[in-house]
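Tutorial, part two.
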Amino acid sequence: MKFYLDTANLKEIKEAAAMGFLDGVTTNPTLIAKEGKKFETAIRDICEVVRGPVSAECISEKYEEMVEEGRRIRKLAENVVVKIPMTPDGMKATKTLSGEGTRINVTLCFPPMQALFAAKAGASYISPFVGRLDDAGHDGMAVVRDIVTVYKNYQYPTEVLVASIRHPLHVLEAAKMGANISTMPFAVYQKLLQHPLTDVGLVRFLEDNKKIPK
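Running the prediction step on this input gives:
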């Protein structure tokens, strides 16, 4: 499984990259607004740090505007992926832009049939929002399981990028199901590395080390 950060914070991105297993970044207008930067500046800054894919959100709603905006976003950096919402106009834009060689991350995906349509339209990535599904009383991870199964049945190359992750268990379940990518806030990233028994064991080793004759 590949691990992405869902952020626009350069400090978090650099910290995760220094650990050696940051594979990419996803962003959105909300995350960029928190950093107080212009959209283009934020994306370029991230792409200078991250070698893997960096998903940047297209905010247009109509097909023609989406295509125009997607082409502008694509030019920001070599590793930019254009995020397009799961709407009828979004599917038209996905087909057009993917046909031009632009990698598309179809976002705000909920039922598996949406994921199937996105794959057929040429999406490189599909982003089911598991946390939001859970909030609405659905089983978000069951949706991911169904998407993974459908894609395997028909051998679609579209990668399943599990988004709206709220806790480490989401990441574990996604990995067990065979999802390609998990994108998460830095706080979840940190929790994946922590365990109380690790902390207790480290303290014990350090204390025992003091007893060794010098």
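The domain at 2-211 is CATH 3.20.20.70 (TIM Barrel). In part three we will examine how such features are distributed along the chain.
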